[in-house]
Amino acid sequence: MIIILKENTTAQELNTLAEMVKSHGVTPHITEGVHQTIMGLVGDTTRIDIESLSQLKIVEAVRRIQEPFKNANRKFHPMDTVITVGDAVIGGNSLTLIAGPCSVESEEQIISVARDVKNSGAKILRGGAFKPRTSPYAFQGMREEGIKLLLEAKKDTGLPIVTEIMDLSQLDLFDEIDIIQVGARNMQNFELLKQLGRSGKPVLLKRGLASTYQELLMSAEYIMAFGNDQVILCERGVRTFETYTRNTLDISAVPALKKLSHLPVVIDPSHAAGIADFVSPLSMAAVAAGADGLMIEVHNDPSKAKCDGPQSLTPESFDKLAKKLTSLKKIMQED
Ligand code: PEP
Ligand code: MN
After folding, report:
1. How far is the CA of 50 from the centre of ligand 2 (A)?
2. Can you give the pLDDT at residue 260?
3. Can you give the pLDDT at residue 213?
4. Is 76 part of a structural domain of the chain?
5. Which residues make up the environment of ion ligand 2, defined by Cβ < 5 Å?
6. What does pTM read for this prediction?
7. Does the CA dihedral 155-116-134-256 come out positive or negative?
């Protein structure tokens, strides 16, 4: 980080600033030019608040020359993070399929979908028990009962479970859940992220509707700074001017996030497209771009789904897609 100082800064003011940055464990290096004095900060500057520094009377500007995330940064952890839950491995050179309905609707529904997606090669079952819906009048999920049914499906199939938490008060219900999902709308619920950091459970963190890569990585950093390095990043489409699709899938997120971070990157083509027919091409694109996994909505009868039917695949179409994805992954592993 570099601090550019105003022209009339006195030696004493400079000294006070130097002492202040030292108290954050960072070493100041002062360079006095003819017209401008700059202070370079060497060390871990992640705890230094740019906003408050910029507001000091003697400061002209502050520039970060390194990303503000440390735990999630590939520069400090060059090797890919690999997360293991049950028989599923996420990260490294694998392609992990996560599939299941948008929401758990009944025991028969979740168990039949779980069995079907498992037979097609899915390694993790998804299903919402607590649903973040735009309308308070829409189906809100089966809540506690939904979690119980997911655990039944886990017992039946052996598939590990990923499901969304919406509030800290729900955390006790997630004891036997394998991966906790933080949805797009909660990506910056920092208190929730801190507590999930303390929980030590793998977290699937979805990108916010209009969040940058850096904001997503700073949210991952919250979880990691509180002691949990098992974070899976998920791109699920962002909001753009285009309204034909539900969101716009940002394929660049795969190479960009993998360059910036060592954390696994998963794509959710279902919420990105909002249209079942587009799930297959977007999934293929995600694998071609190097995604570590896909999270796909599959429903036993999409036309009757309580939530997100139009974007849900039938078990049959998921089966076809899984075969195509496996072949594509094989081709990619050959080079
Ligand atoms: C979901 O995966 O069920 C979901 C609500 O997704 P998102 O948070 O990406 O909208
Ligand atoms: Mn959904």
Report:
1. 37
2. 98
3. 98
4. no
5. 102, 308
6. 0.90
7. positive
User: Does the Cβ of 21 fall within 6 Å of ligand 1?
Assistant: no
Number of folded domains that form the chain: 2
Cα 310 from Cα 303, distance rounded (Å): 7
Ligand nearest to the CA of 98: 1
Question: In the chain, at which residue ranges do the beta strands (DSSP E only) sit?
Answer: 2-5, 27-32, 37-42, 59-63, 83-85, 88-90, 96-100, 124-126, 161-165, 179-182, 203-206, 231-235, 265-267, 293-297
Mean pLDDT for the stretch of residues 241-256: 98
| Cα separation values, 287 from 136, 146, 213, Å | 36, 31, 19
- Asked if residue 7 is part of any domain, the answer here is yes
| Whole-number Å distance between alpha carbons of 90 and 88 | 7
Summarised one tens digit per residue, pLDDT across range 66-91 is 888 999 999 889 999 999 999 999 99
- The pair of structure tokens assigned to 243 is 């309204």
Whether 50 and 135 map to the same domain: the answer is no
pLDDT tier, 101 (very low <50, low <70, confident <90, very high otherwise): very high
Can you say whether residue 38 is alpha, beta or left, with left for phi > 0 and alpha for psi between -120 and 50 degrees? Answer: beta
Same domain, 47 and 154: no
- Ligand nearest the Cα of residue 272 is 1
Mean pLDDT score, 216-238: 97
Residue 99 zone, left/alpha/beta (φ > 0; ψ -120 to 50; rest): beta
Percent of the chain with pLDDT over 70: 100
Q: Which of 164, 166, 234 to mutate to test the pocket of ligand 1 (most atoms within 8 A of CB)?
A: 164
CATH number, residue 135: 3.20.20.70
How many whole angstroms from 323 Cα to the centroid of ligand 1? 25
| Residues 59 and 111 occupy one common structural domain | no
The single residue listed with the structure tokens 């499906």 is 153
pLDDT at 43: 83
